[in-house]
Description:
The chain has helices at 4-14, 48-81, 111-122, 129-143, 145-164; strands at residues 25-28, 32-38, 84-91, 94-97. It has 170 residues and is of the alpha+beta class.
Amino acid sequence: MATEDEVRGWFTGRLPEEWFTGAPAIVRDREEIAVVGTLPDPPSDVSEPERAALVEGIAARFREETRERRIEIAREAEHRFRRKVSWGITCGGTTVMFTTLSVPVMTRLRQAERQVLDTLVAAGVARSRSDALAWCVRLVGKNTDAWLADLRDALQHVDRVRAAGPDAHS
């Protein structure tokens, strides 16, 4: 299994230099690798509605102009890393994802926890228990970004230490 550094290095080396203003952010989990590159910001002297429309247009243009190369790179990466690849851009402080996986996750909940989900469904916050659970996860993620970032950093450190240690499989 490739380390975080190997995945980041491969993508940084494989992607055309002119695509992004720097190295892309690489976010991965068990199923997916998300590649999010930063594009130049639109001019700051435009109104907020014009700025939002510019970002939307820049994202759409980048998506169309790079489609064939992104598909080619994704196929290579999927073969090499055994994970699907999704793409996105950040421009003007806004992140736009082009493709992402929606992966089913099985969980067991007690009655009190199911009642929380059912309340969200009954209130029209979500269409189903599945949507309600996804909403809860997004809410927790949004409100604990710093803590989750620290935890992810610690896990990356553990991965680096494991990779530097002796091979336990020989």
